[in-house]
Fold each of these.
Amino acid sequence: MTGLSSRGFPERAVRERARLGAAAAFPADAHYGHTLFGADPTHSDDPLDQLRITPPVFMPQRLEKLIELGREPLHTDVALETVIGGLRSTLPLYLSAFGSTRAAGTGQVLAASRQAGRLGIPMVIGENIVPMSGYGRGGEQTRRTALGRIAAYLDELPDGLGGVAVQQSTEDADAEVWNLVYSDPAAQPLLDSGRLAFELKVGQGAKPGLGGMTVLDRTAAARVDEQFALDEVFGPDADRVLRCSSPGTFTEEILRQQIRLMRNNYPRVKVWVKLHPGRDVALAADIAWTAGADSVTVDGAEGGTGWAPVATIAHSGLPLGECLARIGPRADCLLTSGRFWEGSRVVKSLALGATAAGLGRAALLATDEDPEAGLTRLVECLALELRLLISSLGKYAPAALGPEDVWPTPAPLAAAPAHRIPEVLRHG
Amino acid sequence: MTTTADAPTTRGLLLPPADPRQHLTSPTTRTVLRLQQHMLAAAREYLTGAGFAEMLPPIIGPVTDPGGRGSKQVDVDFYGHKYKLMTSAILYKQASLLAFPKIFCIAPNVRLEPLETANTSRHLAEFHQIDVEMAGASRDQITAVLEELVRHIVSRVVTDLPEEFAALGRDTSVFTALLNQAFGRRTHAEAVAELIGLGHPQNPDAEIDWEGEALLSGRAAQPFFVTDYPKGSRGFYDRESAQDPGVLRNFDLLAPEGYGELCSGSEREYDYARIVTRMRETGENPAKYGWYLKLVREGIPASAGFGIGVERFTRYLAGLDSAWQANAFPKLPGVVSP
């Protein structure tokens, strides 16, 4: 080096790329397996963060509640039970998919599954779990398998509540994850009680338009090289390689027909669809619902726990608030994920049309803090905040929230009807 | 209807005896298998006479028919590579037309069907098909072949095996309409409308469900075709209509008397770009169909074909309660058997 410098230019980053090559497109390799990725909130331009919750002075729904109860209502009178994509939940919350990233350790994943079951909220099992970790039958020993997680969840799940949504991506289709689960005796209790959903994964928030990525050592990579593309971004001599899933090609017709085929092939499951925060997210969500999806999940650009290029984390995809504004209020079930951990963000997204919010990074951090009860306590706190905030708006159920409950009202929502149809009525 | 003596039942349904000796030595089984042997001989007689070449089908391959309705494929470890047992020979049937313009095979198929299908009386995890494929054929041409083939088989067994039918208690006068009249024909949309009219909640975008098929079948006096299934209910190889997008140039043949589907068939997609697009529409990963897509890209003949379920066809002719009674070593979905 000559000591050449360039003031005002990202010199350090340029020099890092000059040293590391393609590996510098990703967060530092040393953090892999110890860090949950996803957008940095200090750089968030999410409209949700700019909103304020707006309790009115006059509250006709509080009067209705007062008449019903015969006493003044309190925050404890808020009923948080919600139907999420056809599954009954104690709260407008669900456990998001963690994918196959190693940062989600086996112990944490199982602890989170157990606690989600105890809480009676639905749980999503991520893509690539079966090709990477196995299903859990035929002598596979690891407890991280899909069956291991389902068993941990079911052990604690109360009757009639919760349910499991199993994702399938393009590579999962090779492993026939849905066919496997649908014909498996171990999944029959979920099927028989109507608590099994399949989630078609179209995309994810942290890397919109790209497939899943994990870093593997060369031995693990050799096991899956027929199913996945491997990229030597860390150099030919490095002991680790990048494993890439394909994102899968979608057109309007491909999405429509895949959903119809899911309904045709698996008539006993609920059909969920997960979208990345694409610029055409409203059209994609509309196609999914029209084709018969029970639920559409939008993963905002703030979402994700796994390995992603720094460029997409920082610069790609619409913020969740903008996605909600583009979709607008619908009578259909809309799930949201992306940096949820406390009550105000959940209330804001419910006000903008969401039915429930997913916990991803927050659930992993909470179980890392306390494997036995960390997630339970986090959710207890969140549920209290939900009750306080919803009752402060003079409302007593999540489905009663509307765009009038936040300020400033996002432009596409300004002309929307004040009240949505409660989820419970739609499924009744 | 005929049942095997002393057969165990569950939820009111007849199950195969756990002891293969009991099943194989049962007079009913022996009579049914004799009938089936005669059906296969008649099928070969007709197809060979009509210029179809008999091919021996592959049992394993890197990829097989993705199937539908939630059935799982069986993985085979082929020297460290994941292969599949054939769920159907469809991809190989299309490829076989590079050797002969008209082919047939009598092929075993293995499908790990969802557990609930153990109760339909019609599903076996291992079963056989009379598979036929014909280069350059239209749907009308291939359904004519199917109709003649079925009529030939039924005529043969009714003429040659009166004692077997008597032993099974099956009155062969039920086949009079089949032998003397053209098969009925209705579109999927018409079938859906009929079912909804009967109070059956049939999804118009999906296959006719099992209860719906049984309802339609129970009201019919002779076999009938259901045509024009919607895209989203069948595999990528059933050809989409150029004139009517979203509708497939395919068909099922349903037996009367409540016996339900005997056969599925279609004109086939053969254009590379259309097949890749249809693979995505059915959620498939084109990468795993490498050998097939290479063949298609270099050109395969346009064709139409069908597969008749041997055990289902036998069940209908013999008037059996369940398809497993027409198999020497029956395997019901989820039931551990010899």
Amino acid sequence: MLVNILQVAIIVLIIGFAFVVPIGTYLVRIFTDEKDTFLERFTYRILGINSRDKMTWQRYSQAIVLSNLVFVVLFYATLRLQDFLPLNPDKISPAPTAALAFNTAVSFVTNTDWQNYGGETTLSYFNQMVMITCLMFTSSATGLAAGIAVIRGLSQSGINDLGNFWVDLTRAIYRLFLPICFVLSLIYVWQGVPQTLDAAATATTLEGATQTIARGPVAALESIKQIGTNGGGFFNVNSAHPFENPTPLTNSLEIMSMLLIVPALTYTFGTMVRARRQGWVFFGVFAALFIGFLLIIFPAEQIGNPLFTQVGADQALSALQSGGSFEGKEVRFGIAQTSLFVTATTAATTGSVDAMHDSLTPMGGFAALSEMLLNVVFGGKGVGLITLIMYAAVTVFLVGLMVGRTPEFLSKKIEAREVKLVSLALLAHPFMILIGTGLALFWPHGVDSLNNPDAHGFTELFYAFTSVTANNGSAFAGLNGNTTFYNTTLGMGIIIGRFLAPVLPMLAVAGYMAVKPRVPKTTGTMSTNTVFFGVLLLASILIIGGLTFFPALALGPIAEQFELVAGKTF
Amino acid sequence: MTVQPRSSFVRSLLIPAITIALWMIVICGVIYPILLTGIANLLFPYQAQGSLISVNHKIVGSELIGQNFTVPKYFHPRPSATTTTDTPPKPAPYNAANSGASNYGPTNKKLIDGVKDAVAAYRKENGLAADTPVPIDAVTASASGLDPDISPANANLQAPRVAKVRNMSLTEVQQLIAKNTQGRQFGLLGESRVNVLKLNLALDGAKTSS
């Protein structure tokens, strides 16, 4: 037990203390550097971009949308034309249907990586390596750029200049993602992740059967999958597959990769808006939520499923086994590493899984689901910080209403226009999740896709719409999402979850805030860089999230917990 | 107030959006993975190809991928929920071309009944008393369906059966288990585990090459 708590604690402490300041500082350097490197200058020349051009929030948003649109069209085309493209040594056919290709294209372009297919049976090496690996870089760089743009907006006064999207995208990839991923990929290969263009291997097992072993250029994808908080697996079972995640070391590195950049962004924020304490308050709120959810998942999975004990299985932790609820988990990780992975992947909107979330205990599933519902437990590249800033604006507004003051944040007045935009972003998220879940329930044959009955079946649906809208991508994977209805509605959820909540409205807020003059601090100003404000912010997040989603949670995981305690099966 | 040059939509947005997409596909989708493939196969050729184990120059499996063992003389892996790719899918344990899990929820009757049956089968196979608790990993399907490992607790309970069928002493089998048990990585990470394929190869006394 002690070793298990110790390994979780060590990984969490490395994330919390070793990464935040160095990476945060490095991010500031990347995005404020006046000089371009040689490779960057060369790139801008080829692309015909003037790296000194500044973009207003309108321009910046247009660039993001257009660039994403181009990628969606390209990826949709290569998916549909897979049969005619090279690098398909296993002759995987037929190509994805129109609905599946739409869903997959929007999913990977927006950093969601929801997958209604199994990688090794559906996609060629061309689509896995050339398209998906590339999109994992560009989509995470896009999210990061959006986050940086919002920070720039908040740090300015009197100008509308969020930076240059093309430059931010290029620098994020050249200076951050590519170097880290190259090194990490080699470590993964050393640990056993394949990196080959050869077709699947054929083995004759000791009992004489033939076993076809799918492999491919996995390591190149695996590193950016985690570093970019993308989460789309090369194989159907994602990071649970021994080729994606062969050892406890790779599992630990994958966990740390997810939380390498996002927590550090709070420090980047603090530095760039010249309000370091504000950054630390944000970090504190993120960390408190993270630890809170970890403390739900870990014990729930370790205590396990009482029904297993009733039928004679031994779930007790000992020196010889990790015990716990072990359906859909892997021996090499055990409960400790698995719990931390579950907490991290639903926090950082990565969505890769090293255990099947569908088979988590009800409270484990509840915590994973809740992290995505709140969407601010660190959150995705850039987007997590944007969402937290959004909640901060709501908090100062609510508190302002209570005490009758004009709400201010970072010495800028928050007025009707900003509050409306924030509310739009805040409402788009639950609107899509709840309407989508409701629609699936009464759509003809909608519930035919479920793999589990009763409360758990409802959770499967609820989880799917939450995951896509939060741009997470993890799944209660029993749900068969590869139908025209789910491919389409979940694809719509992805688009709304990315652009309406929160990226575009918050870029607008940042743009409007940027042109406002700073108001001088008075005795009436509520300071937002205190522990007290951190607690208020945390309370606002939990109250808004709770009020919005409690009824649905009560029908799903909470109901199932009561059923489990009562010993009922369905 | 605005620092935006009034360049046209096409020139400053559409063309860069298209060219940057194509450029990044070349950099991140072609050059990066191809370069990595070259270096990885140079430095770690065995792992880069999938950690394939050969006996007498014939591939018998991958050390990282579980395979199905059913006869009593071999140690048995965990239950696997992988299937064929047919519609509807048929059970095909340890199908390494189509990884998958049961995805049964904790209150699903199929899950609990499956564990109940697996417990009974495990006790019968290994000659255990009717009230012996069975290690959880022996009766639950893994996340990948390809879990190469079992817990030491599971291996210890199977040892007497294997020893009996093979006319070996229990101590010999236990020594082989110990030899093929991997501790926590760096003494800290993950869990102790027994690689089933490697253990069974050791039982057969096979000379492996990679």
